[in-house]
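Quick review question:
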């Protein structure tokens, strides 16, 4: 099979779909891999590293798309890439189709593309193996981001998260106890901050309490508790996931207005529309904006800030699925590894996932084996793997 790795074109998007180690693994299995020139440079992987392990380095995105059966990307293709789609090919990336512009779905339909959303692939136990490493990285970045933005020169409260003897620690409130929320909570604990985690699932809060040895405060998420927690926070982290749907809006404008001046709000749910009425996407170039004296950080591709680590981690998660696709094709994979089916949003141009279709106000157009089985749906309002 022929795989393609185009260079990401979004502003400051430094991650790459596969590292040289991942490409080498495919080449050793007899597959052909086309890598666009410069695709891995921003993450620290030069073209020679790809050539050395047997990749074909090509000189334009048109060549990658034109030659590849399966295109492996990090982010959703942009409008300038839509015209490059080869009819009938497969695209694997973090698609977030429920909040994508209509022209993306139109391009998928016109070119009869099979679109697999990395963030939606789920195993029977609910684990999301490709989303997990992204969530781990984002969660561990949370105190790094918050610590900087809380500093006085950045307009923050001037709070040191760890505090010092005689001065209270900063308070970090994490909304959502999935993988991202749990990693954020642990990372904030390691800085010495006081940490509060809210979730709708009591069993998840019990798990976090046990995992972190009772060192975090856990609260069942209700409107009342959200208002209470956000009022005294120095940092509020939105770590909410609703697979296949827009993220639920849980932070109201009134809650933001009641936050203290200089509070930092990090909305990791922004790639699914955001969890606050005041959220809008920002970029790694222009990361923040202020609403009612609250600093908002809403960068959808936040893990691109540590592109090398993220690319390695993403490759590790993707390889088992790429091996299967190379050996069996899409339909063969549905039998060999049914969990892939949960990520198929569009099959040969036709909507194939109930949740995604519902979010778009449409009906599914083709029913594939396993695709709409109830795999990993018991996540509460924002449990999941985010």
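Suggested answer, residue by residue:
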């Amino acid at each position: 099979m022929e795989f393609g790795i185009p260079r990401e074109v979004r502003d400051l998007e430094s991650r790459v779909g596969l590292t040289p180690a991942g490409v080498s693994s495919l080449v050793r299995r007899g597959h052909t891999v086309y890598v666009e020139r410069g695709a891995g440079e921003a993450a620290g992987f030069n073209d020679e590293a790809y050539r050395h392990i047997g990749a074909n380095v090509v000189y334009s995105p048109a060549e990658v798309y034109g030659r590849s059966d399966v295109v492996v990307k990090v982010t959703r293709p942009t409008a300038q890439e839509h015209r490059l789609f080869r009819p009938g090919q497969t695209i694997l990336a973090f698609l977030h189709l429920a909040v994508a512009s209509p022209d993306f779905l139109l391009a998928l339909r016109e070119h009869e593309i099979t679109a697999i959303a990395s963030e939606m692939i789920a195993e029977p136990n609910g684990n999301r193996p490709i989303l997990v490493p992204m969530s781990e990285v984002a969660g561990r970045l949370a105190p790094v981001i918050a610590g900087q933005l809380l500093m006085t020169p950045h307009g923050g409260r001037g709070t040191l998260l760890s505090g010092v003897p005689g001065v209270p620690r900063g308070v970090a409130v994490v909304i959502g106890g999935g993988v991202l929320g749990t990693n954020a909570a642990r990372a904030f604990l390691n800085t010495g901050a006081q940490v509060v985690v809210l979730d709708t699932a009591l069993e998840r809060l019990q798990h976090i309490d046990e995992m972190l040895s009772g060192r975090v405060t856990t609260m069942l998420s209700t409107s009342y508790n959200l208002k209470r927690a956000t009022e005294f926070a120095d940092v509020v982290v939105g770590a909410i996931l609703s697979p296949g749907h827009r993220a639920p809006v849980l932070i109201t404008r009134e809650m933001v207005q009641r936050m203290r001046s200089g509070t930092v709000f990090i909305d990791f749910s922004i790639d699914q529309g955001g969890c606050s009425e005041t959220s809008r996407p920002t970029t790694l170039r222009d990361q923040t904006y202020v609403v009612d004296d609250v600093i908002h950080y809403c960068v959808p591709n936040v893990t691109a800030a540590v592109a090398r680590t993220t690319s390695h981690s993403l490759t590790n998660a993707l390889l088992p699925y790429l091996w299967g696709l190379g050996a069996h094709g899409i339909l063969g994979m549905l039998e060999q590894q049914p969990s892939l089916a949960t990520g198929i949003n569009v099959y040969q141009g036709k909507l194939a996932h109930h949740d995604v279709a519902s979010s778009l106000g449409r009906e599914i157009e083709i029913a594939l084996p396993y695709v709409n089985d109830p795999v990993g749906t018991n996540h509460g309002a924002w449990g999941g793997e985010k």
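Why it works: Confidence is low (pLDDT under 50) at residues 373-386. The two ends are 32 Å apart (CA to CA).
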